[in-house]
Amino acid sequence: MITVTRIGKHLGAEISGVDLSQPLDDNTFAQIANAFFDNEVAFFRNQHLTPAQQIAFTRRFGTLEAHVRKESRLGGHDEIFVLSNKLDANGKAIGAQDAGRFWHSDLSYKRQPSMLSALYAVEVPVKDGVALGNTYFASSTAAYAALPEATKQRVDSLRNVHSYREYRLKNYAAQQGEEQRGIRTVQEHAPTPEQLASVPDTEMNVVRVHPVTKRKGLFINEGHTAYLTGISRAESDAELASLYAHIIQPEFIYGHSWRVGDLLMWDNIAVQHKATFDYDPLPRLMYRTTVRGPVVM
Ligand code: OGA
Ligand code: MN
User: Could you state, in chain order, the average pLDDT of each consecutive group of 10 residues for the chain (297 residues)?
Assistant: First the structure.
């Protein structure tokens, strides 16, 4: 029997009573999947997972992605995307250390954006007894539901372009700025032309109906959305800024304080998320698996 404890007002639950390193029977898996989609973010504490076990559990939700940033994949396990500020013996970054600077939804710039991501905490920075590097999640379904009726009608017909290219260039510029101000110490590579060319821009509806819960949500995010189509860039910027401000109100947010052994999953269709870079040079190491979602139009 699993126990589900809701934490946030609209999202976020702890699921206990399950050891994810073991194969799960269909009934237990179905209970976990239900609780996950209903709560949009769900976490399991005190897990002991090898990369292969994390892959085996998350693969039950669908096809796993191998990330476009090849240099950040875990050796021997292409399905694991490494997030870390640690360096190898040659001083080279062992993973992506800049993921989540902006509010975003993983791989939202793809024609088949991610359904869900699962992040396993291997090393968590702690200072004076307090965990650093929290991750924040905002429910875009709760945010949509709370919009005034007239706004819902307006956004229902809007479309937006998600751009990996604009995201990586913006992210790189932000990081260079931080480095110049001495905030960060680890050098991230500039995106390669090959990476930029590998993911074309994608146009899609602003409002998405969740394939499982049927909730409507706002599929825009500050990291990947370049602009709304059919209006001027200035109008688009203003509309997006007001929608973003609406989505990230405290009541729609769950903030996770990590412990080693946490496996936390989020629904990339229903929520967007953001990292906190407050721990460098304390080491942080996380392993992510990413489940592919349906095609968006
Ligand atoms: C991710 C991500 C944020 C964090 O893994 O997709 O955005 O806090 N992570 O590590
Ligand atoms: Mn992310």
Answer: 96 98 97 98 98 98 88 88 94 89 96 97 98 98 98 97 92 83 66 83 98 98 97 97 98 98 98 96 96 96
Q: How far is the CA of 269 from the centre of ligand 1 (A)?
A: 15
Task: Look up tokens 């190898």; give the residue.
Answer: 88
For ligand 1, atom 4, the nearest C-alpha belongs to 275
Domain architecture of the chain: domains with CATH: 3-292 (3.60.130.10)
> With 0-12 CB in 10 A as exposed, 13-18 as middle and 19+ as buried, what is 99?
buried
The ligand with the least distance to the CA atom of 101 is 1
Query: What CA–CA distance (Å, rounded) separates 246 from 240?
Result: 10
Number of other residues whose CB lies within 10 A of the CB of residue 179: 14
Distance CA 136, CA 119 (A): 13
Nearest in space to 186 (alpha carbons), one of 288, 274, 92, 67: 92
Instruction: Render 14-75 in DSSP notation, one character per residue.
Output: EEES--TTSPPPHHHHHHHHHHHHHHSEEEE-S----HHHHHHHHHTTSPBP--S-GGGEET
Residues contacting ligand 1 via CB (< 6 Å): 83, 99-100, 106, 117, 119, 133, 135, 273, 275, 286, 288
Q: Which atom of ligand 1 is nearest to the CA of 81?
A: 5
Q: Is the peptide bond before 281 cis (omega within 30 degrees of 0)?
A: yes
Query: How long a stretch of residues is the chain?
Result: 297
* Closest listed ligand to the CA of 95: 1
Shortest-distance Cα residue to atom 8 of ligand 1: 275
Cα separation, 19 vs 5, whole angstroms: 17
| CA 149 to ligand 2 centroid distance, Å | 30
Cβ atoms of 224 and 163 within 8 Å: the answer is yes
